[in-house]
């Protein structure tokens, strides 16, 4: 049986992750989709922008909020190549993202299925539907190759 084809937004997120790697950033890409249309995208940019909050998810969420003219992204999906950290998971909750799709898990820095498991906490005010391991192999390879080249 052939592998399940990647959704177009995840293919775009992987492309953005490759752009980040080529710029010397950790290869993570993210895309926000509403009604099947990409309304925001981002790649990791903390080093380039001298901004520790410039993770791919935050960049994409900011672009989507600007495109909609609203800080609430109800009905939007977020595709990201790596399990979001606590900061990004918090932003996902505050933005009211409906569905989160991510590629590789992150046992060290992730906060969705690892670490604090933010969306499992009883005090979290919004929980998106979560779909993991979407493009996991491709996303993990990008990260492994990136860090191997720097060791």
Concise account of the structure shown:
With 151 residues, the chain is an alpha/beta fold. It has helices at 8-22, 46-49, 56-68, 86-95, 136-149; strands spanning 29-34, 37-43, 76-82, 99-104, 129-131.
Give descriptors for this structure.
151 residues, alpha/beta, 5-stranded mixed beta sheet, 5 helices, globular
Major sheet summary line: 5 strands, mixed
Radius of gyration: 14 Å
Tell the overall outline.
globular
Strand adjacency order, main sheet: 2-1-3-4-5
Share of β-strand residues: 15-25%
Structural class: alpha/beta
Count of helices?
5
Helix content: 25-40%
Q: Which parts are unreliable, with pLDDT below 50 for 5 consecutive residues or more?
A: none
Number of strands: 5
What is the helix/strand order?
Answer: HEEHHEHEEH
Describe this structure in words.
It is a single chain. The chain has five helices and five strands; from the N terminus they run αββααβαββα. With 151 residues, it is α/β, with parallel strands linked by helices. A five-stranded mixed beta sheet has the order 2-1-3-4-5.
Write the layout of secondary structure elements.
Blueprint: H1 8-22, E1 29-34, E2 37-43, H2 46-49, H3 56-68, E3 76-82, H4 86-95, E4 99-104, E5 129-131, H5 136-149
Parallel strand pairs: 3-4, 4-5
Antiparallel strand pairs: 1-2, 1-3
Helix pairs in contact: 1-5, 3-4
